[in-house]
Design a protein that fits this description.
275 residues, alpha/beta, five-stranded mixed sheet, two-stranded parallel ribbon, 10 helices, globular
Length: 275
């Protein structure tokens, strides 16, 4: 995504877990786009203190944010007797894919530009979340059943992202100058499932990898939501699938009570640590 945005002439700030990851990514972009205007932030999306510190510092120095891509993510952590938790005591996949994004948006909301776009990378696996959709309390979240493939927590986090987009769109109102949407990038070879159980990982690496899209292809729908959406077409609160086509989200995503409940639960998680 960053590579393609740089190609449009946009000033791009990358967010990475380590300085080294940012250096490698920026070097790759500069190799293709020597004049690209790049900056970097080091942030661990699973650590709310890190998100708050870095997000606050960035908000204080930047004039405005035209496009915010909430794209950080981890996949299946595999089955186990103990659910992996973040440093804040939150189920790791949910913490990384949803809670950290929630806090980052709140840190940057005051500097979102008129006509700003918030783009959330979700997934079609959101259709396969738990029967109750998403957990609304920490006990349920941290002690939920993990299927043999370890995909249920990932599906839950991806459904949470769609619910979050719906709720934020509602809170901003129909006349807001900020446009918030989510998308499914398609089945892409990004390494997000590198920690999956061996059989699932083997299938990905040796079978599905031959038909997976490249990351640049998967980014196209998100790029559309970031670059083309705005006052002219009023695309807001939508869930898109490749390439840039509107699609009805999972049934749970239209549950207004679940939307509001998730937002309030996430606020409590954030306030508990970073309030």
């Amino acid at each position: 995504m960053a590579k393609m945005l740089a190609g449009t002439g946009a000033s791009v700030t990358l967010v990475c877990r380590t300085e080294r990851k940012c250096e490698v990514a920026m070097a790759e972009i500069w190799k293709l786009r020597p004049m690209a205007e790049l900056d970097a932030l080091v942030m661990d999306m699973a650590d709310l203190s890190s998100v708050k510190k870095t997000g606050s510092a960035y908000a204080s120095k930047v004039a405005k944010v035209d496009m915010l891509f909430l794209n950080a993510g981890v996949g299946s952590q595999g089955p186990g007797s103990t659910t992996p938790l973040s440093v804040d005591g939150i189920e790791l996949v949910f913490a990384t894919n949803h809670v950290g994004h929630h806090l980052l948006y709140k840190m940057l909301a005051p500097v979102m530009a008129d006509g700003g776009r918030v783009v959330v990378t979700s997934s079609s696996v959101a259709f396969d979340s738990y029967d109750y959709g998403v957990a609304l309390d920490l006990e349920t979240l941290n002690h939920a059943f993990i299927d043999p493939g370890g995909l249920l927590p990932y599906a839950q986090s991806k459904l949470a992202q769609i619910l979050w987009v719906q709720e934020l769109t509602h809170r901003l109102g129909p006349n807001s100058s900020v446009f918030v949407n989510s998308f499914h990038p398609g089945l892409c070879s990004t390494g997000i499932f590198r920690n999956s159980p061996a059989p699932f990982n083997f299938i990905l690496e040796n079978v599905l990898s031959h038909i997976m899209w490249k990351p640049e292809q998967g980014a196209l729908t998100g790029l559309y939501l970031g670059v083309e959406v705005g006052e002219k077409n009023q695309v807001r609160g939508q869930y898109l699938y490749p390439i840039a086509l509107p699609m009805d989200p999972p049934d749970h995503a239209r549950n207004l009570t679940l939307q509001r409940g998730l937002w309030e639960f996430t606020d409590r998680l954030v306030d508990r640590v970073a309030g």
